[in-house]
Amino acid sequence: MNLRLPKKDKFIGIPPGTPVFKGEKKTDKVELKLIEYSENFYSEKEIQISELLELLKDSAKIKWLIVTGLHDTKIIGQIGEIFNIKHLIIEDILDTGHHPKIDFFDNFIFIASKIIDYNETSKTVHSEHLSLLFGKDYVVTFLEQQSDYFNKIKERIKNNSGRITKLGPDYLNYTVLDYVIDNYYLLIDKLGYDIDKLEEAVASNPTKEQLSLIHKFKGVLIYINRLVKPLRDIVRRLETEKSPLIKETTYEYLRDLYDHVVQVTDMFESYRETLTVILDIFITSQGNKLNEVMKVLTIIATIFIPITFIAGVYGMNFRFMPELGWHYGYYLALFLMIAIVIGMLIYFKRKKWF
Amino acid sequence: MNLRLPKKDKFIGIPPGTPVFKGEKKTDKVELKLIEYSENFYSEKEIQISELLELLKDSAKIKWLIVTGLHDTKIIGQIGEIFNIKHLIIEDILDTGHHPKIDFFDNFIFIASKIIDYNETSKTVHSEHLSLLFGKDYVVTFLEQQSDYFNKIKERIKNNSGRITKLGPDYLNYTVLDYVIDNYYLLIDKLGYDIDKLEEAVASNPTKEQLSLIHKFKGVLIYINRLVKPLRDIVRRLETEKSPLIKETTYEYLRDLYDHVVQVTDMFESYRETLTVILDIFITSQGNKLNEVMKVLTIIATIFIPITFIAGVYGMNFRFMPELGWHYGYYLALFLMIAIVIGMLIYFKRKKWF
Amino acid sequence: MNLRLPKKDKFIGIPPGTPVFKGEKKTDKVELKLIEYSENFYSEKEIQISELLELLKDSAKIKWLIVTGLHDTKIIGQIGEIFNIKHLIIEDILDTGHHPKIDFFDNFIFIASKIIDYNETSKTVHSEHLSLLFGKDYVVTFLEQQSDYFNKIKERIKNNSGRITKLGPDYLNYTVLDYVIDNYYLLIDKLGYDIDKLEEAVASNPTKEQLSLIHKFKGVLIYINRLVKPLRDIVRRLETEKSPLIKETTYEYLRDLYDHVVQVTDMFESYRETLTVILDIFITSQGNKLNEVMKVLTIIATIFIPITFIAGVYGMNFRFMPELGWHYGYYLALFLMIAIVIGMLIYFKRKKWF
Amino acid sequence: MNLRLPKKDKFIGIPPGTPVFKGEKKTDKVELKLIEYSENFYSEKEIQISELLELLKDSAKIKWLIVTGLHDTKIIGQIGEIFNIKHLIIEDILDTGHHPKIDFFDNFIFIASKIIDYNETSKTVHSEHLSLLFGKDYVVTFLEQQSDYFNKIKERIKNNSGRITKLGPDYLNYTVLDYVIDNYYLLIDKLGYDIDKLEEAVASNPTKEQLSLIHKFKGVLIYINRLVKPLRDIVRRLETEKSPLIKETTYEYLRDLYDHVVQVTDMFESYRETLTVILDIFITSQGNKLNEVMKVLTIIATIFIPITFIAGVYGMNFRFMPELGWHYGYYLALFLMIAIVIGMLIYFKRKKWF
Amino acid sequence: MNLRLPKKDKFIGIPPGTPVFKGEKKTDKVELKLIEYSENFYSEKEIQISELLELLKDSAKIKWLIVTGLHDTKIIGQIGEIFNIKHLIIEDILDTGHHPKIDFFDNFIFIASKIIDYNETSKTVHSEHLSLLFGKDYVVTFLEQQSDYFNKIKERIKNNSGRITKLGPDYLNYTVLDYVIDNYYLLIDKLGYDIDKLEEAVASNPTKEQLSLIHKFKGVLIYINRLVKPLRDIVRRLETEKSPLIKETTYEYLRDLYDHVVQVTDMFESYRETLTVILDIFITSQGNKLNEVMKVLTIIATIFIPITFIAGVYGMNFRFMPELGWHYGYYLALFLMIAIVIGMLIYFKRKKWF
Predict the structure, then answer these.
(1) CATH code of the domain covering residue E314
(2) Which pTM does this prediction carry?
(3) Check: complex ipTM more than 0.85
């Protein structure tokens, strides 16, 4: 998990607004896909940056530009110029460690967000920076790597299912955010399943591996928490701050979306509490186990130490030890030992040690 | 406890507002019961979806439609059309994992809530999704399974007890919410009884079973907390946001209702704190027990180890060991051992170990 | 402590506003005492419910009705009718588990509160439900049991001390609340004394009894906290929400009262923190004690185990063991043992184990 | 530390506003000192209560009355009459356990506060109740005991240093509060030094004395916290609530004062966190120490127990034990023992136990 | 870390606004550097305090005065007079322990802040007091020691890179704050790297050194937290409180800056949570280790104690012990011992102890 920001060392002192890619390069080339659609039209093609300006002119269609790969600052810069994006926003698009935020401008609304992915085998979370801006007749999404992330939405547009083709870019923008949040649901689902399984396991037999799992999940939840909280804020501001770029009819969907984000954050909160409970169980189970081990040791030791002592006494080599000469001395000693053992057992029974 | 939401995996990418049942199917068929009443009239009958529209026309009576079973999305969809319910709300009715919420519309007020049930033997909580909407002359309640849940209210209407038949659907709606919250009280009552019993038990003798109970109750309270907090919000909004669908006289009841929810949440809060205290007691009792066990071991060991050593010394086979030849050597050795034991006992007494 | 509410099981489904006594019956009969006073007049008598209406007519005097015992719902209902109290408020008076609240009406102000009592020997808190309403020329107080609770106030009225007879029922109401809060002070005083004593004891020698005391006090503070917080709210609302029933001159007293409640809640908050500190001390003291015990065991064991081994070696019966035949063999063995003991002691000294 | 309020037992039921001294008597007589000053004038004298009224008439000078000793309620009452102080405020002046507060009146502003003093040897805090009121041309301060507390301020007035003589009683009032808060700084300074020293000590070797120090400091911080928070509130209200008694030019000083209080509360907050960290270190160090002790015990025991057993075997007295007759039997046994010891040491080395 | 404020002892009672240097003297002389620049001009020179007034007159250029070293109160006082700075602000500049704050005046805006530096080898944080004020055509920065701290910004001005020379002192001020915050990023980067490394190490093998590191980092984060929170406040107020000294176009940069501070505080918050997790891991790992050690001890002890006892029994010297004479007595005894060992091993296997 890149909880840490990308190394900023080399960027200190650079004038603000300079387009610099701050992140790991995850893909080789920058890919630009342009989807154009209206109620009866759908086209999707890979384009060159040079064609872009021309293609955007057709105002009858909604244009969705999907940019994958962020390391080529020149191309991103050119896109910025075409859409009239300020330098500081370009900087945010390129900074893959930037936290989620929203900014309202006259010509578009800008949203920085994260898409996250939970790996069920390694129990880690992978996140990817997603920037999104939508204007009067276009939506632009910037992704680091996963060029096929939005395939399901594309299909819905293609198949003309639901209302997506009848409504504008603000609805497409809502659809994208809804899709992102649905994926958070999915993540909770998987993570929750793992946490619930862990909870049951810990209660029965605490192991070192579980401890490291608890700790891993705690890290994951700290990480996600940092992403989900600003996301909730973004949706709330989208819903409450009126913008001419959002149609009246879209607000009902945004309200519903806000409902979903709240539910997601509530779920995460619940799982954080659950993890704390699990750690508590772990620690007390550990204590229980120590107690059990110590009891076994104590029982064995306290039973045998006294009778071993008796054996030691009659193993002494003094010349004058009357008991040694008694005919039943040996049996008396054995009897004494047995009596001590029985006494001890009764004592432990009363203490409820077993 | 279905802390986790129903698996959303298959629902990702579906256009928002599509009516899909998200939950477990708990009953076989969808049952529609229509209750019609006025001050001198009461009728209750099972109806078909096809009859519904016709039956709603009689505006002189208050109509209460109880829908049990949510898996048949077609029927729910038809009900939605009859009552003019938006798709997004239909989605909320069908999503049994949805958190409690309230939405104000022109024609009706929609409330999503949960009814909960505490099983005293398994110490678990079972919850059921309850949706509720009320308009000018009707109330519709959607339940997953328990078709007889509202029997006590029905009886009150039938017997014309209290003011219920004299007042409108907003009062019926209040009665239903009041009934739901009364059941939360009942739950606290039972849960509180179990927690109080646990508290006493833990203080006297901590066991593994108690630990798992503490942990179970913590889970239950985390779960309930997630339901009760939005419920309080719902009642507060009902009381404060004026709606033409609620008569002036009903607000006094809603204020009282709000009082009750606050009391319920306060009780839950108290029990959460109590559980934390119980866990603290458990851990310190555990520590106490370990200390006790260790003391027994240490007393036995420190008493016998030195005297066993003496026995060992006089068990050595050296040819020249003057003590062995002394006439009272054996008695001197025994005396030395007894002296050591007494010394040790005095030492422990001073240390207040017993 | 009745942290739990009275069993609500049987009350579920009852129409709201139905007067039902919810609590334990603590006294045999319902007692009505009417105190009438003006600047030069004082009378106190036990009356019957039938006389009440007639007696209230004299508007020149301030009337204070003290009702003790709540189980006779008929009498309480009649009082409700005479003073024109709504059914929902009657319900609150009868529900001894109801949390503190305030309600403003046109003809009177209603306050539900608790009087509490700390038992210094059993270290428990006993609470009693106190309802209070005051109008233009009367105050009514409802108590569960302690009919002599307000004797000190009565004496002040009788003796005409202070301003009480010169001012109206709002001042009497203030006096009653002030008296209730003064009793909370007293409770803190006693509780604080016990907690301070406990704090000192825990630091020196932690015992099982202290642990159960800590836990008892935690429970008491959780319980009181639930009562004091709404009480502060009540006084704040009395002070800030203007009512024609409260004279301008009384507000200064209410401000002072609010000051006192804040101080009381602050004190409770402090004691909660103190208890957390005490528990921390307890746990660390426990750990210290375990360490001490383990050190004793370890010192004894590590000193004697090696030398016992040497004794064991020379206790072996091999035919050919040269050392056994040496003239000073025995003394050499003893010397070796002493050397080991001294070495061990130096080692422990360096480790600062004693 | 008088965390507890003075015993209120005897004061319950007393009419509010009755002047009663609630506190310990700390000084024998009540001392009244009157300081009069203007830009070119300074006089300081001890006066009698009977002279006071006369002396206040000279409106050209600023008058500062310092009252030391609060137990003589009659004198305090007379002062109250002279300055026209309401009974409830007199009560606050006399109640040495009263928390800090501010009250705005037409003729003066009243502030109750505490001066605190940290004893570096006993590590305890001593507090003294300080009441302060200032009007158009006078300041009155009430102290319990330390009649020389304000000497430094007096000197500044006498020496005409700074702006103090040029500005009015509101500035003097500010100077007094500033002086009080400066003393809180001093306290943090000393306390912080002790906490930092403790932090270093705990990390190296945790002892019982440190534990009791941690606990003492926690108590001190809980106590101070209760005083500083309302103090911050007082200064904030002084700064924000406009009063004709405070000149426009003084607000800039009050803003600066508020800055200082915030800094003081921040420091205390930091030290509270630091103490929590110290306790954590203490507990984990304790755990470390236990682990270390247990390791020593385990190493010694596991090495010697098996070889002692071997010695025991060859100490048995069976008639037929072939090994006993072997010529090198003894050396073989010794060799076996040494092999076991080496094996154990390798095992522990691998486990990284030493 | 100077968590503690500089010793205030000697400063108590000094009239407010008196310029006194409160801090450690870190540099020998006070250095004044004046940078003058416009779009085509850059000059930097060390100046004397006497030349300053004259040099400020050229209003065509932006003047940046960098003052390094604060102990010479006379020089600072003179600068204060030249720029017309109130005495209370001069006091804040000289008090190196002052917390970050902002103050708006008519002629300039004053900001007190800290620059911090993380030492990767000693794992400590070093902070330096930075005061900053900017007016219509000048910026003044006061530093304790690091005269070359702003070199990178100077270079940008010199090289005319970015917009810095085209915009006014408000932009320069923003640049300076941005630079300070960028250095906080760098600090997180380094600190985060160390914390992540620690996290991994703790999980595998907890040591005393790690504990002291955890504790050191906790201290560092408590310290930084106290600096970053007011810094966020400063930037928020700069952004929201309109001042004629800040041009409309600069607000967009300030908004971006605020974004950055929020991100920085979020990161610190995350690391605080992470450290808590690390401590939890440490404690539970410690518990695990203790359990492991105890298991080894218990296994060894419980296996050997019983068989050593048997050896002891047959080492007794009773005259009549039939077993001793049996021909296979020795082998039977050995067999019995082996049987016990196997039995024990099976028992431990079942208990899953190894």
Answers:
(1) 1.20.58.340
(2) 0.79
(3) no
